[in-house]
Amino acid sequence: MRVGIFSKYLLSFTVLIVTSLSISLVVSISTIKKSYLKQNKAHLLTLSKVVKILIEENSFDLNNSKLQQKIKELSKNIDYRITIILKNGKVIFDSEKNPALMENHKNRPEIIEARKSGKGYRLRWSNTLKKEMMYFAIPIYQNKDIVAFVRVSSFSDEVFILLNSIKKNMFLTSFFIILFSFIISFILANRFTKPIKQLAEASQQIAKGNYQTRVFTKNRDETYELTSGFNYMAKKINDQISEISKQSERLSIIINSINEIFFVIDKEEKIVFQNQEFLNFIQNKNFSEKRYWEIISNPKLIKKIDNVLKFKTNEKAEIKIGESSYLFSSSYLQKSSSAIFLLFDVTEINKFREIKKDFLINASHELRTPLTSIKGFLEIMSENPSADNSKYLKILNRNTNRLINIVNDILTLSQIETKLQLSLEKIDIRKVLQNSIKIFEHKTNEKEIKFTTNFEKIQKFKFDPFKLEQVFVNLIDNAIKYSNEKCNINISLFSENNFVRIDFSDNGIGIKKEQIPRLFERFYVVDKSRSRKVGGTGLGLSIVKHIIQLHNGKINIQSEYGKGTTIQLWLPIKI
To answer: Which has more pLDDT, 361 or 212?
Structure first.
């Protein structure tokens, strides 16, 4: 059962007051009782001493009838019982009963205590009067010897009657105090909890979307600060919600204006946001409370989404959906465990690429034949040079060779991009490397370049031998072209974590750090003047990169300007 804050405070105040009063009553009654008994004890002692003085004034004649009469009158006047007991315990006088009928009092507790310490006090039951009594006894000395005991006693009923009267008055007073306190507590609790109730109700209104709700109070205490803070908070929330609504509306307009397919999948694998293009893509299916695989029908797209959500990574890839091609792009949001997806229609772009590739291939074929003819005529002319044109013929010959190399490289690159399939076969990659090195024996001898190899003995794996040879030839050719005379070129081959790794190292001219990221761009050359001189086209590393990517491998370049370059290849092992 839910207990409200008002009831809690009222109950707390009431329990606190009742508990405090109860403790006060118990302590007060106990204190009054102890105080009364203490006073009564002192009074009994005084009376005992008075009786003792009377006996001493009558020369300790305990059996004197006049003395006993005086004591009896004293007992009657003060309304206390007086008893005289001999040393041996025999009762010789009692103001209430006949001593002859009373038993020996030698073993009464108060007499035993008086004999030991000079005073004896007890609150106990009287066998003679059949009532609870308070006893106080003192010894009577003669010549320093105890001859008798004076005992004064009173009924304890009087104490308890007085205490009961006090209790009654105190309980009655406490009842009125509690009643008055309850009324005050009710007023205070209501005054204190009323603003809190208003705040609770206002909070529920805000939770329902009513951001105009405000709370007002006449109090000028902490509750006023609390309600003022709540009103300020409600205003700020209202302002922020308004701003968020405007931003959301703007964002919705922007997203719906995107001509690409856009959608968001949350951690529960539901599509929580999308644009109109996505609705057109899925043909406006009802996907409320459905998982994305229940909405999207294309298996390739589902698989891509699965990978992103499973491995929590960003991914870009091109996929075919029906007759159209799309560039799939995703961004995984770690904080919200959701992912954003975009599908760009690249069908027309791909068609343009195909047209471009066809153009390059056709242009290469058309250019190669006349350039080859020109080179042939230039060679004939160079065999019979005149003194006037031999210098120019060499320049024409060198530039013609460069043009032919460019055309050949363009053709090679276009063929690699067009034919995306590999002709895999089990090969000994060491032999491919050795054959590639032999091709450049003439050049290395001319420049006195020394080749060193470090080939680990590895088994045969599946690669495309022709394309790998193109890679090795390009890299070795670059190492020779961009190395000075009498330099060293080292080639290493070994296996590393399910990859075949090949390193090509030289101590040539090296590459500047800022130039390394651009090395795989088409027609980019590090040193244009040197490239023209040695016949470089700027397409070799592009060819290398494409072939390595076809093998699902990796390539890395490390270089220090003026000290040399290392190119590392990783080719995944396929048995």
So the answer is: 212
| Cross-strand pairs, 568 | 503, 556
CA Rg value for the chain: 58
Strands 499-506 and 315-321: unpaired
Q: What is the DSSP string of 408-462?
A: HHHHHHHHHHH------EEE-HHHHHHHHHHHTHHHHHHHTPEEEEEE-----EE
How do residues 320-354 score in pLDDT, each as one tens digit? 888 888 999 999 988 888 999 999 988 888 877 77
Task: Tell me what percent of the chain is helix, strand and coil, each rounded to the nearest 5.
Answer: 55, 20, 25
Between 55 and 188, whose confidence is greater? 55
CATH of 258-345, one of 3.30.70.20, 3.10.20.30, 3.90.640.10, 3.30.450.20: 3.30.450.20
- The CATH architecture of the domain made up of 6-161 is 2-Layer Sandwich (3.30)
17-42 pLDDT, tens digit per residue, is: 777 767 777 777 777 777 777 777 77
Least confident range from 23-27, 405-409, 457-461, 522-526: namely: 522-526
Angle between helices 465-481 and 540-550 (to 10 degrees): 150
